[in-house]
Amino acid sequence: MNNVNADPAELAKFSDLAHRWWDPDSEFKPLHQINPLRLGWIDGQVSLAGKRVLDIGCGGGILSDSMARKGADVTGIDLSTKALKVAQLHALEAGTQNVSYREISAEALAQEQPAGFDVVTCMEMLEHVPDPSSVVRACSALVKPGGWVFFSTINRNPKSFLFAIVGAEYLLRMLPKGTHEYAKMIRPSELAAHCRAAGLSLEQTRGMEYNPLTQRYWLSSDTSVNYLVSSRKP
């Protein structure tokens, strides 16, 4: 792996946690299940091979790793030290090339490397930050003119409260209780406004649906709960 700035002894400490991030039956199971959908949707709009890609809020590196395997040169950033150690450990264990991880905010990296990336992804993260518009502005600053920015998040309405919080966290126990906060969920119109204010043009919006009986996810035109947005910098 290129540019590994890590102490193997430190990485070893987090190996137990790493197996939870990368255990497809752990609390991260939903991320593993939706990852092929996210990856295919992104790669279908811009071929990732040979692109310089930034994954904001990368966590344990599930999406970052899969984009690197598509031939992208990926940088994953997060503010969780433990998650990044997990991501680094997995890259070493799996032998994933072209992926590196840094503990830095999107805003700080935007000052350091403006227009530094062909593609920026920010998935399942905006609903967890105090000021999502600031992250969207940073994404716009980080991507090159003509480049792509991809988001995914959760709508805010009675149905999304029922499905994403009551259903996923309390009834089906797919996610730990308290994973999502209703007030921080973002309507597609709000995300669209953040994008336009940051100078990004909207390209496509897709919904992501889930059937708890078949445990299957698929993309659709229904954006009432989970949804994805692609945008470009002119």
Automatic annotation (TrEMBL):
Binding site residues for S-adenosyl-L-methionine: R38, G57, D78, M123
Gene3D superfamilies with a match to the protein in the record: Vaccinia Virus protein VP39
CDD domains: AdoMet_MTases
Keywords assigned: Methyltransferase, S-adenosyl-L-methionine, Transferase, Ubiquinone, Ubiquinone biosynthesis
Molecular function terms from GO: 2-polyprenyl-6-hydroxyphenol methylase activity; 3-demethylubiquinol 3-O-methyltransferase activity; polyprenyldihydroxybenzoate methyltransferase activity
InterPro entries the UniProt entry points to: SAM-dependent_MTases_sf (IPR029063), UbiG_MeTrfase (IPR010233)
Gene Ontology annotations of biological process type: methylation
EC number: 2.1.1.222, 2.1.1.64
One Pfam short name: Methyltransf_23
Catalysed reactions listed for this entry: a 3-(all-trans-polyprenyl)benzene-1,2-diol + S-adenosyl-L-methionine = a 2-methoxy-6-(all-trans-polyprenyl)phenol + S-adenosyl-L-homocysteine + H(+); a 3-demethylubiquinol + S-adenosyl-L-methionine = a ubiquinol + S-adenosyl-L-homocysteine + H(+)
Coiled-coil region(s): none
Pathway annotation from the record: Cofactor biosynthesis; ubiquinone biosynthesis
HAMAP family noted in UniProt: UbiG
Function summary: O-methyltransferase that catalyzes the 2 O-methylation steps in the ubiquinone biosynthetic pathway.
Family: Belongs to the methyltransferase superfamily. UbiG/COQ3 family.
Name under which the protein is recorded: Ubiquinone biosynthesis O-methyltransferase
Organism for this UniProt entry: Hydrogenophaga pseudoflava
UniProt gene name: ubiG2
